[in-house]
Amino acid sequence: xxxxxxxxxxxxxxxxxxxxxxxxxxxxxxxxxxxxxxxxxxxxxxxxxxxxxxxxxxxxxxxxxxxxxxxxxxxxxxxxxxxxxxxxxxxxxxxxxxxxxxxxxxxxxxxxxxxxxxxxxxxxxxxxxxxxxxxxxxxxxxxxxxxxxxxxxxxxxxxxxxxxxxxxxxxxxxxxxxxxxxxxxxxxxxxxxxxxxxxxxxxxxxxxxxxxxxxxxxxxxxxxxxxxxxxxxxxxxxxxxxxxxxxxxxxxxxxxxxxxxxxxxxxxxxxxxxxxxxxxxxxxxxxxxxxxxxxxxxxxxxxxxxxxxxxxxxxxxxxxxxxxxxxxxxxxxxxxxxxxxxxxxxxxxxxxxxxxxxxxxxxxxxxxxxxxxxxxxxxxxxxxxxxxxxxxxxxxxxxxxxxxxxxxxxxxxxxxxxxxxxxx
Length: 424
Hints:
eight-stranded mixed β-sheet
C-alpha cells in the first residue's frame, strides 16, 4: 500500500490542534510529529492548510437503484470525496424503495472500492407505503444500520411506536422525516410572507413541529432512540432542546442551507431553492445556529438530493431537493467558523465525530495507529460555486454563484488519496 507524508500541516480533531508532520503507511497514521525524516511515495506540503478526520454525511440520496439519471452510487461517491466525505448514510426512497436485503446488498456491493463507506438505510414500512413494518432482522443481517421512510413521514403514530420498540431489539437507529402531510396539503415553500407574495401554497411550520414532538413522545414511551432529520424551525429546535434536558434519547441534524439562507431566495421563482423542509425565516436561521452552538443539534448533514435540470425547470411542479455534498464543509466554514460562531473543534464534532457515534461506527482520529480517513482543507480559500463543475450528475445547488470561504483539497480514505483538487 502507498505511503504519504504530509509536512507542516495544522492537524485538528476534537482533542488536537497543532502544526505537525503526518506519516501514513499501510492505511493508518504511522507517525505524528515534527521533522519526520522517513521517505514516502507521496509528499504533500501542508503549509497553511488544515488536516481533519474525514467527514461523514448521515443523510444523502444517491437515487440508485431506479433514478440513475439524477445520480448513481459511483457519481454520488465521487461528489462525496470532492467534499471531504468518506462515509454516508443513503436514504431508502429509491425505486424500488430499499426495503429488502437484496437492495441493501446491491448498494453495498456497488459502492465497494469507491473509497466511500455507503451505509444503506432500510425502510420502516414496506415500500415506504405505511402499510406494515419491514423485516428489520433481515435488513440488519444484510448490512443495514438505520431505518427510515425519509422522503415521507410514517403517518400512523402506532406504527411508528412499534417501529421504535422493535428498533431496540434489532439495534437499528430510527431516523424520522418529520412532516404531517395533511398540514402540508400541497404546499411547496415555507408558509409566510414570501409564499403570499408569490401566490403559492405554503408549508406550515406546524407540520414539522408537530411530528417532531410526536416522535420524541413515542420514543420516550418505549425507551428508544429517535433521530430527527433535517431540523429547520425554531420550534423544533426548542422542543428537541427541552426533550434532551428531560433525558429523552433524541439526536438530530440540520443542513447548511437552514443556517445560511432564508425563503426570500424563493422570490426568484427558481426551484433550485426548493427543498423539504423548506428554507425558513431569519428567526429560524438564528435559532438553528444557536442550536448548533449549544449542542441541541448533533450533526451537520446535506440531505444531498439530486434532480435533473429539466425536472427543476418548472418552479411550482419541480420536485424538492438540492445537492450539497461538495459544498457542505465550505458552507459550514463560511457561515459558522469564519463568523466566529464555532471553532474548528466543533466543526469536527458536528461533521466527523457525532454522525459516526450516533450510528455506532468507529471514529477516525488524528493519532498514531488510527485509520487514515482524512481531509486536507484550505480553510481560507475563497471560491465561487459553479454548478457545472460539480462531480454530481445533478447541479441543483442553492449555493450556485455564491462565494464560499474554505475548500476541501485532498480526501484520503484508508490511506489512499481518493480526491485531489489542489490544482482545480
